Amino acid sequence: MPETSDKIHDIVVVGAGPSGMTAALLFASVGFETALVAPAVNQEDGRTTALLQDSVTLFEQIGVWDNLRSFATPLSKMRMIDDTRRLVRAPEVTFDSAELNLEAFGYNLRNKDLNRVLAEAAQEQANLTLFEDLAVSYDFGEESVSVFCQDGAPLKTRLLVAADGRNSQAREAAGIELRRWSYPQVAVVLNLEHDRPHNETSTEFHTPTGPFTLVPLPGRTSSLVCVVTSEQAETIKTMSKDDLALELEHRAHSILGKFGIASSPQSFPLSGLSAKSLVGPRLALIGETAHVFPPIGAQGLNLGLRDVASLGRLLTSARDMGADIGATEVLSRYESDRRSDISTRTFAVDALNRSLLTDFLPVQIARSAGLYLADKVPPLRRLLMREGIAPGTKRKTQAVRDNVY
Ligand SMILES: Cc1cc2nc3c(=O)[nH]c(=O)nc-3n(C[C@H](O)[C@H](O)[C@H](O)COP(=O)(O)OP(=O)(O)OC[C@H]3O[C@@H](n4cnc5c(N)ncnc54)[C@H](O)[C@@H]3O)c2cc1C
Hints:
20 strands; 2 domains; alpha+beta; D-Amino Acid Oxidase, Chain A, domain 2
């Protein structure tokens, strides 16, 4: 193996998905001398991401929100419609951000725009060095971690942040165990044009194969995440644009009028993953390296960005107190800060997805009763809305009012 240079970076982030790029930008912006090792950013991603308020705050902090905002569409209302056609069905529920005195629950953005803006900011961030390379192996030492790359020279760092995704080699090299599971479903993603305005309302139909979700984009366009069986996903791929537009309009009960297909469908088989530990020797896992679950309720990347914010906060305070940022005690704090949020979201999304798939009547009744109460009991509605945005939102809003932060 080639010799590692003597220079020790404060932090090396591996992986330039949205979690890795945001983390590298945050660490560099608060004064850590940071390196980002990753192949060129993926510009073929046809998905969109609904970014919730905490994510927007983080993007403001790293100075990219003004650029992102011009590509983002506000999500003011979220509507859920039970389209399972089962014996027991839930009532329709609409959550309105105005009930929380918010302009919007969040903003929908094309992943291509998100990734491009983050990559441009990374080029300009003074404290951040970019290595367009693949990390291939690691040596976890007492004082530092060595990162060996496919083409360039190895790097040394006090702390390795693994953001190399669901098949992370960094996680594997550190011997961190995982739980993996799969679902009998595929998410088909594409963008649509439509006749009627969406009025900044995201609509989620709960169907027997999973959610069918229309999320607003600029003007009379929306993104669609349609969770179907793998056979149905194959059929969709072979349909002509006109037939597909008609089929999707039918599934959407024409709520947005006539559909036109604005992008080719892309498929994402659904699966789940949970790392048994979020930390290793001088190592922290963030984003999909640590947790993966189905795309329901716009939770995945928002959860990953809360990992980033938490890690940034804890590392800054450790450094300010003169502590070693790669020390076990610092990393243990990250583990305990993030564990409950990750477990709760993973469990809730998994339970909702499975409740749609099952024909077991008690589960159908429980899901319907939950949505009925969410519709009829205002304090529960508000609690669900706040928790949907981020855990502890009420406490944070109160703390801001009381000038605690
Ligand atoms: C259909 C769908 C819709 C979704 N919608 C939403 C939504 O509305 N809201 C939301 O919050 N979330 C959503 N998600 C989830 C969200 O897309 C993911 O959470 C997010 O993309 C994960 O980003 P990441 O940076 O953690 O991982 P990734 O995007 O997987 O990034 C990993 C990166 O690591 C790099 N890498 C891999 N190996 C190496 C190596 N050896 N060396 C260097 N680099 C390496 C890869 O090239 C890649 O760029 C959705 C997911 C799906 C499937």
